[in-house]
């Protein structure tokens, strides 16, 4: 019961003398994927790992809002608050290194998640989602759609941030799959006619889409590297009453899943938030309780 929740249970995987640990997340942004991951952590993983390790787990989250300086401040705050382990999804592979250097110099283990950061001052790196595979899946879906409907898709690609590799891995993998199928990006049944950085942000993507609609009369497809970007494009297409003329695909399958049922988002890749972050949480618990970063 709750009266002994802070007491270590016999037979748990906790070999340290800690009864309570604090795990901190410094996120590059608080997009739809991260919101679903936070929910999974709180509702599913905290109870699961409290039972496994016989320890009370406190969690704290910070949204760096795409700002390197804010991310460094967030990590400094976590250190000051006494976090046992910090998980950081870097805003920038180079710029965020200072946050890792700070935590490591302060003796607080910090791991990089989603992608690498360019410093050795970290406890380890966990790539929780296979973004190359996601990009390939999306390309295959568009190829199948174009072939089955005997149509040519002229695609605008809403990539992520110029300095956030994960979303651009999806766009690059998409391009590679199209080139492998048709030989280039401009003569097959799936053609990329323009690419811009949607910043994983609805408003940024909406503005880009408005510009594209003035310039590219033949565009009939949007490849968005997340559903927040896709939603920006969809709003423009609905306003212009062109949603039925377009194929729009995205990634995350969380917040905007209802748009698939409504026929506005044609396809999304669903990321299982609980599965994606479970290994990360397990590693953080092990490190917090005095263990090493596990080999994965």
Characterization of this structure:
It contains nine helices and ten strands. The longest helix is centred in the first third of the chain and has 22 residues, at 32-53. By secondary structure, the protein is of the alpha/beta class. Helix 1 crosses helix 9 and helix 6 crosses helix 7 (227-239).
List the helices and strands and how they pair.
Layout: E1 20-27, H1 32-53, E2 56-63, H2 68-81, E3 85-88, H3 97-105, E4 110-113, E5 124-126, H4 131-148, E6 153-159, H5 165-182, E7 190-197, H6 202-215, E8 221-224, H7 227-239, E9 247-252, H8 258-261, E10 267-270, H9 273-288
Parallel strand pairs: 1-2, 1-3, 3-4, 4-5, 6-7, 6-8, 8-9, 9-10
Helix pairs in contact: 1-9, 2-3, 4-5, 6-7
Outline:
The protein has 9 helices and 10 strands. The chain has 296 residues and is an alpha/beta fold.
């Amino acid at each position: 019961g709750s009266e002994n929740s802070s007491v270590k249970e016999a037979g748990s995987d906790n070999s340290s003398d800690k009864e309570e640990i604090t795990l901190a997340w410094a996120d590059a942004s608080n997009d739809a994927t991260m919101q679903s991951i936070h929910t999974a952590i709180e509702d599913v993983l905290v109870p699961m790992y409290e039972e496994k390790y016989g320890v009370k787990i406190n969690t704290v989250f910070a949204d760096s809002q795409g700002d390197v300086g804010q991310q460094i401040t967030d990590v400094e705050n976590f250190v000051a608050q006494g976090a046992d382990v910090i998980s950081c999804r870097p805003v920038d592979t180079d710029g965020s290194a200072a946050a890792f250097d700070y935590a490591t110099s302060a003796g607080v283990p910090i791991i990089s998640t989603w992608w690498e950061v360019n410093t050795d001052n970290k406890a380890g790196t966990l790539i929780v989602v296979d973004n190359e595979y996601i990009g390939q899946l999306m390309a295959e879906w568009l190829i199948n759609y174009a072939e089955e409907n005997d149509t040519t898709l002229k695609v605008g690609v809403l990539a992520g941030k110029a300095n956030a590799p994960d979303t651009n891995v999806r766009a690059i993998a998409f391009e590679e799959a199209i080139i492998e199928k048709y030989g280039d990006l401009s003569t097959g049944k799936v053609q990329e006619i323009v690419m811009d950085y949607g910043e994983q942000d609805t408003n940024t993507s909406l503005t880009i889409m408005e510009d594209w609609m003035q310039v590219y009369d033949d565009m009939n497809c949007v490849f968005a590297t997340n559903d927040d970007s896709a939603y920006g494009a969809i709003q423009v297409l609905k306003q212009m009453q062109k949603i039925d003329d377009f194929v729009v695909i995205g990634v995350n399958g969380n917040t905007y899943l209802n748009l698939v049922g409504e026929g506005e988002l044609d396809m999304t890749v669903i990321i299982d938030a609980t599965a994606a972050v479970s290994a990360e949480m397990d590693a953080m618990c092990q490190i917090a309780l005095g263990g090493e970063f596990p080999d994965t």
